[in-house]
Design brief:
Elements: H1 5-31, E1 34-35, E2 59-62, E3 67-75, E4 78-80, E5 89-92, E6 95-103, E7 108-112, E8 118-121, E9 127-133, E10 137-142, E11 155-161, E12 169-175, E13 179-180, E14 185-194, E15 200-208, E16 211-219, E17 223-232, E18 239-248, E19 255-263
Length: 269
């Protein structure tokens, strides 16, 4: 059969186009990291996330030398952590980070701007994605699934810190009296936890009635240290006084606890 030269060109062009379409669809499905939830994923009760082993402790957790897990709950119309009023998601550069994301209400998405991290977030399901962050930078976080009238405001932030500046300090407990007699000393004992695997140093700042005490602390990896601050009430009038303790770390992140101390007899209602 004699095929005209121009017909041959069109046939070749059509075959190339078909191959290109198949390659594009294949790349879009498996090559750029867009994840869909399937029946093999972990299931959770969206009405009881506060009792779940993973999602009762949202945020960043170190699980290996350079391996971290970040547990995130999406809700109308923000992320916990990542979006307001919660702090941003924070991880160190040079790390492998696995995100575990679920929703407590409706379908959302978890999309990291400028990367191939993009997944649907479905109530009752857990989306899992592993990403390597090589450089210190900041990423925006967006929801690409319509989730309600304030969907356009659902955004957040991921901050990748230099590895040497990254800390995971927490204050799991503060032992402080609620009342002392005038002239007595009050002791406030702060338990400081280092959730990184490496030894880290920081400064605790304790403020009481406008006066500040500072204590440098070094905590072993995955360990805690107790620091006690003493308040002399000799020159204080009978009244209620506020106190606060703040952790200063390399990320300029605020980790604090606060309370109130009554000097003298508490006022009767």
């Amino acid at each position: 059969m004699n095929v005209h030269q121009y017909e041959r060109y069109w046939l070749i062009a059509a075959l190339v186009l078909i191959v290109a379409i198949i390659a594009t669809v294949t790349y879009g499905a498996v090559g750029i990291g867009i994840a869909m939830i399937d029946d093999s994923e972990e299931t959770v009760d969206p009405d009881a996330l506060g009792e779940h082993e993973r999602f009762s402790e949202t945020g960043t957790h170190q699980v290996g030398e350079n391996e971290y897990e970040v547990n995130v709950i999406a809700w109308q119309f923000s992320y916990e952590p990542g979006g307001s009023p919660d702090p941003p998601i924070e991880v160190p550069a040079g790390s492998e980070v696995t995100f575990y994301v679920t929703s407590e209400d409706v379908i959302h998405s978890f999309s990291v701007v400028g990367t191939n991290v993009n997944t649907m977030v479905i109530p009752g399901e857990v989306a899992t994605m592993t990403v390597e962050f090589d450089e210190a930078t900041e990423y925006g976080l967006l929801c690409n699934e319509y989730c309600g009238e304030l969907h356009h405001d659902m955004e957040g932030e991921i901050i990748v810190h230099p590895e040497e500046e990254f800390d995971l300090f927490e204050i799991p407990a503060v032992d402080a009296p609620e009342q002392v007699d005038a002239g007595e000393e009050a002791e406030i004992t702060v338990t400081l936890a280092n959730e990184r695997h490496q030894e880290r140093s920081t400064t605790l700042a304790f403020e009481f009635d406008g006066d500040e005490q500072r204590e440098d602390v070094t905590v072993d990896g995955e360990s805690t240290e107790e620091v006690t601050f003493t308040v002399d009430t000799t020159d204080l009038e009978d009244d209620d006084y506020s106190w606060s303790v703040t952790v200063e770390d390399g990320m300029e992140r605020t980790v604090d606890e606060s309370g109130q101390l009554t000097v003298g007899e508490p006022e009767e209602d």
